[in-house]
Amino acid sequence: MALADYMAHKPVLTTDRLTLRQLRPSDLPALKEWMPDKAMYQYWGKPAGKTDKNPQLLFEKAEKRTKSLHWAIALKEEDKVIGEAWIYLIEKNRMAKMALRIAPAYQGKGYATEAAKAVIDFCFTHTELQRLWTDVDVRNIPSWKVLEKCGFTREGLIRQGKMVNTWCDYYIYGLLKTDIRKDGALPRILD
Ligand SMILES: CC(C)(COP(=O)(O)OP(=O)(O)OC[C@H]1O[C@@H](n2cnc3c(N)ncnc32)[C@H](O)[C@@H]1OP(=O)(O)O)[C@@H](O)C(=O)NCCC(=O)NCCS
After folding, report:
1. Residue to mutate, 31, 38, 102, ligand 1, most ligand atoms under 8 Å from C-beta
2. Which residue is closest in CA terms to ligand 1's atom 48?
């Protein structure tokens, strides 16, 4: 299958502790626990939107076909949604932006890194994507730590630029398919 097929038939990804899948109405109580939490939006580039504040809205609209991939990140054992991952701003099926968020109560346990590695592996193994990138507020240390644990290279610093909808100093991180070692392991970053 190609990237376009996966946009129509969203893939489910599994890791040791997580399932990355589509959202379901039964996820609503879990989403309400963390989606409206202001702490989630400190370095998100924009404040909580309408659906972030009221996740019920996610299930009230007819599902639209999007030119992106989105996964709910669920704990495998409890099937509880604790975060989300996106592959979006897809350019010519060759380059895309990656974003992740994990509920505050579950941060610092390696879940974002585990989910990101599954997404990266999927993108480079099953789609035509050659480059993943993202921008990160320099103060968002957990976020750039996750990227570096996944092998991303810090490609540059933008001073007082526009990151999504806010002005801040931010890093650009990128990962190429060719950065991944031949044995399938993600590249190690030297400190
Ligand atoms: C960024 C985010 C996804 C990380 O999720 P997470 O599940 O906590 O990430 P992990 O546990 O996999 O890794 C976080 C790393 O940051 C480290 N870290 C966290 N806070 C830190 C701090 N203040 N200083 C230094 N390191 C810190 C953790 O120790 C861990 O590194 P380690 O494995 O070497 O110990 C999560 O914080 C989040 O959702 N933030 C809000 C949304 C957001 O800003 N998303 C990023 C923009 S796309």
Report:
1. 102
2. 99
d(CA 80, CA 19): 9
The answer, yes or no, to whether any atom of ligand 1 lies below 6 A from the CB of 109, is yes
In this prediction the pTM is 0.94
Residue 161 falls inside a structural domain: no
Q: For position 94, which CATH number holds?
A: 3.40.630.30
| 101-141 residue pLDDT tens | 999 999 999 999 999 999 999 999 999 999 999 999 999 99
SS (H, E, C) 105-162: HHCCCCHHHHHHHHHHHHHHHHCCCCEEEEEEECCCHHHHHHHHHCCCEEEEEEEEEE
**Once rounded to an integer, what is the mean pLDDT over residues 60-70?**
84
Residue 181 lies in a domain: no
Decide: 128 and 3 in contact? Cβ < 8 Å.
yes
142 C-alpha to ligand 1 centroid (Å): 3
